[in-house]
Amino acid sequence: MSSQIVFMDKNKIDVENTDATITASQGNAFSLFVRNRSNRSAWVTSGSVDADNTNIEIDFGDSRTLDILILVTHNFKNYTIQYWNGSIYVDFPTPINVSANLLESTSHEFAQVVTQKIKIIITATTEADEDKFLYQFIATSKIGRLTGWPKIDNPTFDKQKKRNKMLSGKENIVENLGGFSVNLSLDVYSNEADLDVFEALYDSPEGFLVWLCGGDETQFSNVRMGYRMRDVFLMRTSANYRPEFYKGSYKSGIIVDVPLVEVIT
User: Fold this and answer.
1) Which of 22, 28, 94, 181 is close enough to 261 for a disulfide, judged by CB 3.0 to 4.6 Å?
2) What average pLDDT score do residues 196-202 get?
3) Residue 30: left (phi > 0), alpha (psi -120 to 50), or beta?
4) Cα–Cα distance, 179 to 181 (Å, whole number)
5) What is the mean predicted confidence (pLDDT) over 118-140?
6) Are the beta carbons of 35 and 15 closer than 8 angstroms?
7) Please, which residues have CB within 8 angstroms of residue 77's CB and are 6 or more apart in sequence?
8) How far apart are CA 15 and CA 133, in angstroms?
9) Domains of the chain by range and CATH?
10) C-alpha to C-alpha distance for 145 and 194, rounded to whole angstroms
């Protein structure tokens, strides 16, 4: 089953939220790695077994609105996630109580809740009694999930490579981690909900999360970089908003062109 592109507010535990705290019952020294936007570092335990029922508690610092959680690259076979209702931890409107999971990354959507804290309890790993790991944990609210299918143009991972020719004739290439950019376009579009989403993106004063796979990477003929479950990018629009009607006809749809670039804030 395919899923359209999802846009989300910045992660509520993003590294910029200095009020947020993350406490793990095991591997606590590495717990902050789940909020640093990186798929190169992770929270990981040492000497953990399934019977430990390892938990991670996340405190946003104040009340936040949530309707989606994404666990990026982990080895949790059985796990439960609950939220704090002011007195105790309770199930989300759609309970998150997963068993026999074999997916590398997972996501959960539910009716909005407002909470200050959530807790993840891991009761088994995909390989019994192996150390638990989680690269990113995203807890936020959706700006919108598109109903249409924009054309995905020019997806680019730019590492800003610099080439220097050595005396030997060989080249030395220096590159950084780089950033992602992509352009979404629709020639004639009139879906009100989707147009509201695009306008919200252009009007956003800060970065927002873009999830091209929308939670289903199997919809692509090949699961490549940019379209995987793990590929969630903090981005902004890189051009001015131009709500132009197709061929100037007010009864026609809008020409949609949304250039997006990865940002640091």
Assistant:
1) 181
2) 97
3) alpha
4) 7
5) 98
6) yes
7) 99, 100, 101, 102, 124, 125, 126
8) 19
9) 11-141 (2.60.120.260), 151-262 (no CATH)
10) 8
Which stretches does DSSP call E strand in 85-145?
Answer: 89-98, 106-125, 133-140, 142-145
Collapsing DSSP to helix, strand or coil, 175 comes out as coil
CA–CA distance, 196 with 115 (Å, rounded to integer):
26
3-class DSSP string for 224-250 = CCCCCCCCCEEEEECCCCCCCEHHHCC
Longest dimension (CA), the chain: 69
Report DSSP state, residue 11.
P
State yes or no: pLDDT of 168 exceeds 90: no
Range 114-134 average pLDDT: 98
* The residue count for the chain: 265
pLDDT, greater one: 175 or 217: 217
| DSSP assignment letter at 131 | P
The pLDDT of residue 187: 86
Go through 7-20 and write b for each residue having 16 or more CB atoms within 10 A of its CB, e for each that does not. Answer: bbbbbbbbeebeeb
Q: Token digits for 5?
A: 């592109």
Nearby residues of 171 by Cβ (< 8 Å), 6 or more positions away: 163, 164, 165
The HSE-up count of residue 56 (CA atoms within 13 Å, CB side) is: 28
Q: Is the pLDDT of residue 240 over 80?
A: yes
C-beta of residue 113 within 8 angstroms of C-beta of residue 93 = yes
Alpha carbon distances (Å) from 78 to 20, 65, 98: 26, 25, 5
Q: What angle do CA 4, 10, 235 make, to 5 degrees?
A: 65
